[in-house]
Amino acid sequence: MTAGLVLDNDGIALSARLVDWDTESLGAPVAQVDRIELRGQGAGPADVESLHEWLSANHVALAACRLPEARLRESFFLEASGFRFVEMVYGMRLVLGPNDVAAVAAPDVHWEHAGPRDLPELAAVAASAFDTGRWHVDPRIGAAASGRRYAHWVERSLAGGPQEVLLAREEGRVAGFFIVEDLEDGSSYWHLTAVSPTHQGRGWGRRMWASMVGRHSAAGRRSVRTTVSARNLAVLNLYARQGWRFEDCQMTLQWVPEQHAAAPQAGRRA
User: pTM of this prediction?
Assistant: First the structure.
């Protein structure tokens, strides 16, 4: 495999890299376009060719890029390179104050730090909970690889680093979990939030969300942020009812080579 791709000329600034943990989930190399900015007259055919050569040299089976909704020129370049729009996501934010210690609103929700022994149950919840995610809804990839992706996310978060995995139980079983991170600006970020399928439709989402907000407020955090798929209407309505505000909107584009699009290979392992 080659090093990451960097294009920097009068027409375009672009950087891309391979994503190890997504590669593990898909069973084939996965890449991320981290930055793309069109300048002047924009990119030319040679830039498109350079991107494709890098994808081919690394045997990339899936590449993705997330752009602010107004970056249409960049989205046109990516579409000319074979990328396709797969989802819109909303950035959400809740400003906290001294009166937002809402844990009392959910006295039956008790948070604990997850450990390695909890991984099988958490991975099973994660594999089934995110059916609006971009991997899941893209028929070229499919639900199986999407489930592995979120299960691996939980596993990596448990292995250490800045993200905490917190879970709530009912009668010994995991009712849901949050993967959260406290940032240096005084905010907290929710990376993943999930309710077990067996606990959905019973108010656990509402109580867990309120309780976690209370936990952050009691810890002196100033705000909470997260990102939600536009397809996830139930969760968007939950956030809206609890006072969250929409901050921004981003579009995700994905590239899959023709041979993978014709015969998805997301189920195979490396």
Answer: 0.87
